[in-house]
Specification:
single chain, 2 domains, 45% helix, three-stranded antiparallel β-sheet, seven-stranded mixed β-sheet, Rossmann fold, 19% strand
């Protein structure tokens, strides 16, 4: 009996994986969003949640609906993309940027920064505030990109529930803040609206690390807690984009659980602040 149960479970798992491949292939060909090289374990977990939320019994049923109902795809995209973030997440990372990267960024007459996988904009606003505190915002332009249009709309609005602000404030203070976070937003009707002075220095735009190419030369790329959802080939593609985007000796910041150690592009970078996963583009030999 145990063998029968194990066999049935293995068969169901194989069917799920076949349906998963057909679904992501269909999404790629119809909607031009490429999830084919995303980490399979993460995709399985997210799609199982989507099945429950969208009341579909199988991935085949979900595929049929997604291919016929464009609005449903927008909902599915919310399940497939990472939307969990907060302002000044991992304050020690932002302190390292402030204390060790910013002094070198000051040497440029103008600055361009790229926040890849910006979700609802928390990291982009965090960097804008940090640059403002360091007197660099007015000569800076931040590109904040994501593949989810709904997240980009939310990010561009710069509005967050007021109950999240307390946590943002603690993170900001621990990042070495030189002002109060309240200087940068207006609270009303249970929401915090971040200042236009920040938003006008950020360009929010659709960009896929899986399919799109380099769009600008920048001095700093921050792509945190995104690569962990990619398989090795897609990680290497993304890191290649960062390398090609960065100017000579530009900087790359990754998430606390990410590393270039096993990347096929690792030779393009040297560790700058190892503990905080901040790298510098290597000088060609």
């Amino acid at each position: 009996m145990d063998a029968e149960i194990a066999g049935a479970y293995a068969l169901a798992s194989r069917k799920f994986d076949i349906e998963l491949k057909l679904l992501v292939d269909g999404i790629y060909h119809l909607y031009h969003h490429d999830f084919r090289d995303y980490a399979q374990a993460s995709l399985r977990r997210r799609l199982k949640g989507a099945l429950l939320h969208l009341k579909c019994e199988t991935l085949s049923q979900l595929q049929d609906r997604v291919l016929r109902e464009p609005e449903l795809f927008r909902t599915l995209l919310d399940h497939l993309t990472v939307q969990v973030s907060e302002m000044f997440r991992d304050p020690s990372y932002f302190r390292a940027v402030r204390e060790q990267v910013v002094p070198l960024l000051r040497t440029y007459p103008s600055l361009k920064l790229w926040v890849a996988g910006c979700s609802a904009g928390e990291e982009a606003y965090s960097l804008a505030i940090l640059l403002c505190e360091e007197g660099l915002l007015q000569r800076s332009l931040l590109y904040a990109t994501d593949i989810n249009p709904r997240m980009l709309e939310s990010a561009e609005a710069g509005i967050y529930p007021i109950d999240r602000i307390a946590g943002f404030t603690v993170n900001h203070r621990e990042s070495g803040a030189k002002s109060s976070l309240s200087d940068y937003y207006t609270a009303a009707y249970g929401r915090a609206i971040f200042d236009k002075s920040l938003r006008e220095r950020i360009v929010f735009s659709d960009h896929s690390l899986a399919t799109d190419s380099v769009f600008a030369e920048v001095q700093f790329v921050s792509c945190r807690n995104v690569l962990i959802y990619f398989d090795r080939a897609l990680q290497d593609r993304a890191v290649g984009l960062f390398r090609d985007s960065l100017c000579r000796q530009g900087f790359l910041g990754l998430g606390s659980k990410e590393s270039l150690r096993f990347s096929g592009r690792s030779s393009a970078f040297v560790s700058f602040v190892g503990q905080e996963k901040i790298y510098q583009k290597a000088v060609p030999t």
